[in-house]
Specification:
The chain is of the alpha+beta class and about 140 residues long. It has helices spanning about 1-5, 35-45, 75-95, 120, 125-130, and strands spanning about 5-10, 20-25, 25-30, 55-60, 70. Strands 1-3-2 form a three-stranded antiparallel β-sheet. Strands 4-5 form a two-stranded antiparallel sheet.
């Protein structure tokens, strides 16, 4: 389901920026994927395109008979505004070279072999943050 793909749970042991937080069906969640809402934001910004838009996925499994489309039921304007704010927060952090602290358990990690243990234990955080700010430690 699109909702499950785009929202993750908040936990006390995970630090996440405020811009990632959103309330969904009365529960505090966090954005983990902005794909579909940003498509809607992009489409709605084009004056030649007229809405409303339906957001969803095409499921393309190995068994052709199981192919289907799954729609995101009526994403609200507040949800789309939150997605836009989250994207702006991510862009701001990247421009400011804010990449710390590392995610505890990234969904995809092509670089897991670079550290023999938790990166937070392998890296001098103060020196790394000073490096990111362009200062010598």
């Amino acid at each position: 389901m699109p909702e499950e793909a785009h929202f993750g749970s908040l936990s006390a042991d995970r630090e996440c920026p405020e811009y990632t937080r959103i309330e969904v069906a009365g529960r505090q969640k966090r954005w983990i994927d902005l794909q579909l809402p940003l498509y809607a934001v992009l489409l709605s910004s084009d004056p030649e395109l007229r809405g409303p838009f339906e957001l969803g996925y095409f499921n393309l499994p190995k068994a052709v008979d199981d192919t289907s489309a799954v729609l995101w039921d009526d994403p609200s304007s507040a949800l789309l505004a939150s997605a836009r704010a989250c994207a702006r927060g991510v862009i701001s952090d990247i421009k400011s070279r804010r990449f710390w602290p590392p995610a505890q358990r990234p969904r995809y990690d092509d670089f897991e072999g670079l550290f023999p243990a938790d990166p937070a234990l392998c890296v001098n955080a103060e020196a790394f943050e000073a490096f990111l700010k362009g200062k010598a430690a």
